[in-house]
Design a protein that fits this description.
Helices cover about 60% and strands about 5% of the residues. It is mainly α and about 400 residues long. The structure holds zinc ion.
């Protein structure tokens, strides 16, 4: 059996063949169409010239008629050949699908399905959220309708705004992002976020670096906004004032060039996405993408062990709720904080029932702690340590 890399290489080489074919068909089509258009234009010009020479006589001579007929024939042949080449391309594209089928496993039926029917609507919701994140409203709405999801307009709006802002930042337009940051000023400063300052900094630098006649004056006026950020960003503001010295030669040719670089824009975009997700209470990465990446990495080992178990005629020992029989390294990107579940009440902790650390170091939920309290002391359920209930420390997860 070939390795995954060999499979990818096989498919890539098929893909390359088709790309080359696309290019040659494209070039040929362009040339043929250009020729056809050129001949038509020549004839048109000739006829017009004749019409202007002999006023009122718009009849064609026999020679001209024959030229027009020949030209029509040629154009028809060209269009026939272009369309047959186009048809031929379809066949080549479908070969890619066959190459993928041939080189990769497509039958995963031995692997037990871990998604019950009752979870389908949850899955649809996650897919829908993914499309909303990408700003692909049409697809999301079609899915909402077809799967009868209950997703209100209100739930959709923040995603759409977020997408619009990210697109704005990609096009180096700061207006939507600044409006959003100013509207969320209070909550962003409470979270110690520097996004608002960073957006204003970029706007200031753009103003200063603009070729407008009043750019220096505009930048001086704009700099007043930094007053409210001075407690946290004094050093950054000093640096910005230094930028005035380099206005003549352009910030991009100064020691502060990095502040206006493409990387700075990308960082701004990433920071915005992160902070906006935090504000909305959503994960920064699309949960669907995370699950798909984890799934594709896990499927191979899972297929392998399933086949081994089938060969040995062992019943599969895992179902939707059991742990995977193999450990799969998903990489650093997929490391998340686990959710703390109270070992006594077997419930996930929440804001209303947070985890509490006892003096011995063991952790239980607040509700469990209250249940363990006998009116005077709390006895740890894991070790014999006794303590005052007031000594338990709240943990933040
Ligand atoms: Zn203990």
């Amino acid at each position: 059996m070939q390795s995954d890399q060999e499979s990818c290489e096989q498919v890539a080489s098929e893909l390359q063949k088709i790309l080359t074919k696309f290019e040659s068909v494209n070039n040929h089509t362009q040339e043929s169409l250009k020729d056809a258009i050129h001949s038509l234009e020549n004839i048109q010009q000739e006829i017009q010239q004749k019409a202007s020479q002999v006023f009122g006589d718009d009849r064609l001579t026999d020679v001209q008629k024959s030229i027009v007929r020949d030209c029509m024939k040629k154009v028809q042949e060209t269009s026939k050949s272009v369309s047959s080449q186009h048809k031929d391309l379809h066949g080549s594209v479908s070969k890619i699908g066959k190459a993928i089928d041939k080189n990769f496993v497509s039958d995963f039926s031995p692997v037990p399905k871990c998604l019950g029917e009752d979870k389908i609507s949850l899955l649809n919701e996650v897919i829908c959220e993914h499309f909303l994140r990408q700003g692909r409203l049409n697809i999301a709405e079609a899915l909402i309708e077809e799967s009868k999801l209950e997703l209100t307009e209100k739930a959709k709006l923040p995603f759409l705004e977020m997408h619009e802002i990210v697109e704005g930042l990609k096009a180096q337009n700061l207006v939507p992002a600044l409006t959003w940051a100013e509207r969320n000023h209070e909550i962003l400063s409470k979270q110690n976020s520097s996004i608002e300052f960073n957006l204003h900094r970029m706007n200031f630098l753009m103003l200063l670096n603009s070729k407008s006649e009043h750019s220096r004056w505009d930048a001086v006026q704009y700099a007043k906004i930094f007053q409210i950020f001075s407690p946290r960003h004094a050093k950054d503001i000093q640096q910005l004032m230094g930028c005035f010295l380099f206005q003549d030669r352009g910030i991009e040719h100064s020691p502060y060039a990095h502040l206006l670089s493409l990387t700075a824009w990308q960082e701004l975009e990433e920071q915005f996405a992160k902070d906006a997700c935090m504000l909305l209470g959503h994960a920064m990465e699309s949960p669907l993408m995370i699950a798909i990446n984890a799934g594709t990495k896990t499927l191979g080992p899972l297929m392998h062990i399933t086949n081994v178990m089938l060969q040995k005629q062992l019943p599969p020992e895992w179902g939707p709720k059991a742990e995977l029989p193999v450990s799969v390294d998903l990489g650093q990107d997929s490391l998340f904080h686990s959710v703390f579940a109270c070992p006594i009440l077997r419930q996930h902790v929440a804001e209303s029932n947070p985890p509490m650390k006892l003096t011995c170091g063991h952790v239980v939920s607040k509700d469990a702690l209250n249940q363990l309290f006998n009116g005077q002391k709390v006895k740890c359920p894991y070790c014999p340590a006794e303590q005052n209930i007031t000594n338990a420390l709240r943990l933040h997860v």
